[in-house]
Design goal:
220 residues, alpha/beta, Rossmann fold, 5-stranded parallel beta sheet, 5 strands, 36% helix, 13% strand, globular
């Protein structure tokens, strides 16, 4: 009998984020739903760069916050609920890549750098909790700080004051991740938001981010 070749087990990566992980293009007409295809979206770019040794799950929800029930978009935008659902829906996973905080910079959430980081810290707490770690037999966490927003374009009214606030997030978040012992990457070191709407990424930014995150993961 011919001996069967045993293939190595793939690592599983869960990407948890908002519209920029979902693949929403820069907004021209508010309220219109569009999505970049899999050739463009940064999580897919990252997965292709990582290769066959990795399986990737996309969990990007447009409008998702780190900790707030959005009064306009709905309570399901609260990332705390969403992360628990994602971690109990998929698995076992080996790595959680978390990129949130952009929507927390909206004026209606009275944003400050510390408040945004506190929201991300709550998600890290959920991920590192004993029940979640036990469920997945342990997994690592990579926190990705989104690039600062700009107050331009058709949704700028939702982010009044958000540009200055989001500029201050990366150093505070980096310090928190170092204290918690989780990996950190500043997306703003390789990309910028689109000048069209000041929030979302152009295709070249998706490409650059996907490749950069793949390199970070390979070095973990």
């Amino acid at each position: 009998m011919k001996e069967q070749k045993v293939l190595p087990m793939a690592h599983t990566l869960l990407v948890f984020g908002d519209s920029n992980s979902h693949g929403s293009p820069p907004i021209v007409t508010p309220g219109e739903y569009l999505r970049f295809d899999s050739a463009i979206r940064w999580p897919r770019v990252m997965a292709r760069a990582l290769g066959e040794g990795w399986a990737m799950v996309e969990e990007g929800l447009p409008g998702r916050t780190t900790q707030f029930d959005d009064p306009i978009m709905g309570a399901h935008m609260n990332g705390r609920t969403g992360l628990r659902i994602a971690l109990e829906s998929h698995g076992p996973i080996d790595l959680l890549a978390l990129m949130l905080g952009t929507n927390d910079a909206k004026t209606r959430f009275n944003p400050t750098p510390d408040r945004i980081v506190a929201g991300i810290a709550g998600l890290v707490d959920i991920a590192l909790s004993e029940p979640m770690q036990t469920r997945h037999d342990g997994f690592e966490v990579l926190v990705i700080c989104p690039p600062p927003v700009e107050e331009v374009g058709p949704i700028s009214g939702e982010f009044l004051g958000g540009a200055a606030v989001s500029e201050g997030v990366a150093p505070v978040l980096a310090a928190h991740c170092a204290a918690r012992g989780v990996a950190f990457f500043d997306a703003g070191s390789v990309i910028e938001v689109s000048g069209q709407d000041g929030v979302h990424f152009e295709p070249d930014a998706h490409q650059a981010l996907g490749l950069a995150v793949a390199r970070v993961i390979e070095g973990m």
